[in-house]
Specification:
Blueprint: H1 7-16, E1 26-31, E2 34-40, E3 45-49, H2 58-70, E4 74-78
């Protein structure tokens, strides 16, 4: 797991942390053999910030999203995100 967040992840985490939206979000949460950027278990919502490092890993991202959807999660996976 990465300890350092990208700039986009830092900005998003500042908005998600501390139940600011009325629910708890976790970051760098393990699920099977994946590490999820952000997850809200109450809403079954996963947010993945897929920046330029994921351009060559689209198959991995598709597999991750399909597995999460099969487990009942709604997945929001961005490309390079600007906050």
């Amino acid at each position: 797991m990465r300890k350092s967040l990208t700039d986009a992840e830092q900005k998003l985490w500042q908005r998600l942390r501390g139940r600011q939206l009325g629910v708890k979000f976790r970051r760098q949460h393990p699920f099977e053999n994946f590490v999820l950027d952000f997850v809200c278990l109450e809403w079954n919502l996963v947010i993945e910030i897929d920046g330029s490092q994921h351009i060559e890993n689209t198959r991995y991202d598709e597999k991750r999203s399909a597995r999460l959807a099969a487990a009942g999660f709604r997945v929001f996976a961005s490309g390079t995100m600007k906050c």
